[in-house]
Write a structure and sequence with these properties.
The complex is a heterodimer of chains A (about 375) and B (about 190). Helices cover about 35% and strands about 25% of the residues of chain A. Chain A has about 375 residues and is of the alpha+beta class. In chain A, the strands form two sheets. In chain A, strands 8-9-10-13-12-11 form a six-stranded antiparallel β-barrel. In chain A, strands 3-4-7-6-5-14 form a six-stranded antiparallel beta barrel. Chain B has about 190 residues and is mainly α. Chain B contains eight helices and no strands. In chain B, helix 7 crosses helix 8. The mean pLDDT of chain B is about 80. Classes of the chains: A alpha+beta (about 375), B mainly alpha (about 190). At the A-B interface, helix 1, helix 3 and helix 4 of A face helix 2, helix 3, helix 5, helix 6 and helix 8 of B.
Chain lengths: ~375, ~190
């Protein structure tokens, strides 16, 4: 029997559209032919899933319709609430101001960072810009003040250590228990380091590995308030392919920012084989961010960009992380995630999962 | 009609995607949930989200056919919402509230695990759907999701006859199936 006809038959059987005679014939065939039976089982399962999706969708439509009707009627009111939520409201309203101010601050710091490049190791060269948002300026300090005031208003709800940072970059978890990879040049001169998640929770961290030649650093979160996070992405040992679509999340401003691009060369700045060249739009603050491919694998870590060319960015290969772990395995046991749970998800869903694992790295 | 019968009718309506039933349940329960969530560091918008999710859980239960209501809808929804909200708060690492409940709560953890698995499964199908491209997506949606007939689909998509549309639908279905199973098996 043609597969076309078989699938059709399975569908009609499932929907009860067969005559009694057809039905007996069909059941007989399934009994005598395991292959057909297998196809039937599989196809029925598939159709059930499809149908369920259809039902779920139309039900969700109903829910939305009913909800918006009730909002219009005023039954579900968008009223101002009392109690604890009031502080939350206040926070929310302030947050917008903070975000706007932070935007302006980030814009200014791009220019300052390119001028005040204090990058100094063997890779230092005129043509390379480290992507750390150095010298957060006065405006940003003001933002911090506002934030601090806000914290005082919300005492007991979001206690946050006061921390006056003078640079900001990105880092991401390589072990859900609190190990974060970032760039060596980021933490180069820092005396104190903290990492901050997208909700603004801050945690104290210490460097456990710094390698200036590969520009890789690994931080360990020492704060006990840090809770283990399940890792959505994996970190592969293998090299990535030329032309692979990639994306990154980072903190060029006080809010996580998404960027998209592709892998343009398998070697980095002037032939450096420990890094890739990628084409993506990044800004100061993106340093240390993960470079992730569509399968949810972290293939590299953003480290710098060529000053005179637009969109020429360099990323340390993920292999370096494995090498680093080898070197520090006696003191720290870090387990890299090998399975990407976000594989196959829509990009938006992937980002939602990854966001929790990307941190702002600040220090002074 | 006593309460039990009333609720039974509501659940049947829910399983059949009846708007009236949905609306009644909304009217009878939404505000309780909203005030619970707002009291526990949420916004009314969070309440809308959580309530919708809980309504989906209730729908899945009602339409599974094996569902016997062992408590009032009100209690059930409250328990589900409470659990969902506490979980969400934990995920956001927002301050853990002292949500010691004075209201009656039934255990729903296991059901929510099932629900989550269900959501993940549906996501696989939806992703596969998004990947097959047009016109396949629209044809399959028209046939399997909106339950349009083949002649209607042929006319809408401009096929000269229903048989041609059916051949196309078959091709699309095979493609969808391939993508679906590739992801489904991968996910396990």
């Amino acid at each position: 029997m043609d597969e076309n006809l078989l699938l059709d038959a399975i569908e009609r059987y499932k929907n009860g559209e067969m005559t009694a005679q057809e039905k007996t014939f069909f059941e007989e065939m399934r009994k005598n032919n395991p292959d057909v039976d297998q196809v039937a089982v599989e196809h029925t399962f598939f159709l059930n899933e499809l149908e369920r999706l259809g039902k779920r969708k139309s039900y969700q439509n109903t829910l939305r319709e009913v909800e918006s009707n009730l909002v219009n009627e005023g039954i579900i009111a968008k009223k101002q609430s009392k109690g604890t939520a009031k502080i939350a409201y206040l926070w929310n309203r302030y947050k917008k101001t903070v975000a706007v101010a932070a935007c302006i601050a980030a814009l200014v710091s791009i220019s300052t960072a390119t001028i005040l490049s204090t990058y100094s190791d063997k890779k230092q060269s005129i043509g390379l810009t480290p992507l750390v948002a150095d010298k957060l300026n006065k405006l940003e300090n003001k933002v911090d003040q506002i934030e601090n005031k806000l914290d005082n208003a919300a005492v007991g709800i979001t206690p946050k250590p006061k921390f006056a940072a003078n640079f900001r970059a990105t880092g991401f978890l390589i072990d859900g228990r609190g190990f974060i990879a970032t760039n060596a040049h980021v933490i180069n001169k820092a005396r104190n380091l903290i990492v901050e998640n997208k909700r603004g929770d801050q945690f104290i961290a210490i460097p456990v590995y710094v390698n200036k030649s590969t520009d890789l650093a690994i931080l360990k979160v020492t704060d006990t308030s840090f809770k283990k996070i399940n890792m959505p992405y994996s970190i592969p040992r293998a090299s990535a392919e030329l032309g692979e679509q990639i994306f990154t999340l980072g903190y060029p401003k006080e809010e996580v920012v998404y960027g998209e691009g592709y892998l343009s060369a398998k070697s980095g700045y002037s032939g450096d084989t420990t890094s890739y060249q990628i084409s993506i739009s990044v800004n100061p603050g993106n340093s240390g961010g993960p470079v992730i491919n569509r399968n949810g694998e972290v293939i590299g870590i953003i480290s710098g960009k060529e000053t005179n060319a637009d969109g020429v960015v360099f990323a340390i290969k993920s292999k370096s992380i494995y090498k680093a772990l080898e070197e520090i395995k006696t003191s720290e046991s870090i387990k890299l995630p090998t399975v990407a749970t976000i594989k196959g998800l829509e990009r938006v869903q992937q980002i939602k999962k990854i966001e929790d694992c990307v941190f702002m790295v600040k220090g002074n | 009609m006593n309460i039990l019968e009333h609720e039974h009718v509501l659940l049947q309506g829910l399983a059949a995607n009846d708007k009236k039933a949905v609306e009644t349940i909304y009217r009878e329960n939404y505000l309780t949930i909203q005030s619970f969530i707002v009291k526990n560091n949420g916004y009314p918008d969070d309440a809308k989200d959580i309530f919708q999710e809980a309504m989906i859980v209730l729908y899945e239960k009602a339409s599974s056919g094996t569902f016997e209501l062992t408590c009032q809808i009100k209690t059930y929804l409250y328990s589900v919402c409470r659990r969902l909200w506490l979980k969400r708060l934990q995920q956001m690492q927002r301050f853990n509230p002292s949500a010691e409940s004075i209201d009656e709560v039934i255990p729903v953890e296991e059901e929510l695990d099932v629900h989550e698995k269900r959501n993940a499964d549906l996501m696989v199908m939806e992703n596969a759907m998004n990947k097959i491209g047009e016109p396949c997506k629209s044809i399959l949606e028209a046939y399997y999701l909106q339950k349009k007939t083949m002649p209607e689909i042929a006319q809408f998509f401009g096929y000269t006859n229903a048989d041609n549309a059916k051949t196309q639908k078959y091709k699309c279905l095979v493609r969808l199936k391939k993508i679906f199973f590739a992801q489904y098996k991968n996910g396990e």
